[in-house]
Amino acid sequence: MFLEIEQLRKSYGTGENKVEVLKGIQLGVEKGKICVLLGPSGSGKSTLLNIVGGIDTADSGSVTVAGEVMQGMNDRQLTEYRRKHLGYVFQAYNLIGNLTVRENIEVGAYLSSQPLDIDELLDVLGLTEHQNKIPSQLSGGQQQRTAIGRAIVKNPDILLCDEPTGALDYHTSKDILALIERVNQKYGNTIVIVTHNDAIKNMADQIVKLKDGQIQDVEMNAAKVPAEQLEW
Ligand SMILES: Nc1ncnc2c1ncn2[C@@H]1O[C@H](COP(=O)(O)OP(=O)(O)OP(=O)(O)O)[C@@H](O)[C@H]1O
Predict the structure, then answer these.
(1) In the chain, where the domains are located
(2) I need a surface site. Which of 35, 67, 131, 135 has the fewest CB within 10 A?
(3) Which conformational region is residue 193 in: left (phi greater than 0), alpha (psi within -120 to 50 degrees), or beta?
(4) CATH class (in words) of the domain with range 3-229
(5) In testing the pocket of ligand 1, which one of 8, 45, 161, 196 has its CB within 8 Å of the most ligand atoms?
(6) Pick the residue with more confidence: 84 or 16?
(7) What's the CA gap between 219 and 222, in Å, rounded?
(8) Does ligand 1 come within 6 angstroms of the Cβ of 47?
């Protein structure tokens, strides 16, 4: 398995206030697949994503990406791990306000020794004509496209998306999901999408349901639907 999560546990707080958020998560995702992670609010989806992303740390268990085990890495190694393996897309676009679309994407490129070709990527993103605008001159969808560009330009093995369409309307959401699908097909990155939107599972290769910090169900989806045909 390309991404392997073994017996992952995480609690917050201590003593009486201790809350067990992840209770022994066991999950594998194959290279180049799209995995959608569903579950009610508070089930631990973002916590799991943040641990895989090296933003948060687990109490026990392990995460392995391409044979590299994260647990036990020091700060420098974790930074290198994030740089080499991971791209992150959030609900809030977190762009740098005084840099253009192209410059925001270039920020991501600096983190890689082998970045993707920026002109080609701008074309894939549908942002060529907007490349010299700053974020305040863009729609929400265009800002999220830019954020996806910044995450993907270093051609990460894994793209983690936490509610990537949470702030967007129906049509723009479908547009962004179709872009994520296109990125997956063109560059072959493994993609994990956390969402509240049940319909998004239909575009996934693997559907994972989380409940109360445990995996309730894992389903391989043989009847994948293109993102643009999703309905909700
Ligand atoms: N830093 C923290 N300190 C204390 N508790 C936390 C912290 N981060 C998350 N939690 C708690 O962990 C639980 C799981 O949170 P998490 O954000 O992973 O859930 P989620 O499934 O992503 O929820 P949502 O869909 O609402 O984003 C929640 O009860 C939350 O209050």
Answers:
(1) 3-229
(2) 67
(3) beta
(4) alpha beta
(5) 45
(6) 16
(7) 9
(8) yes
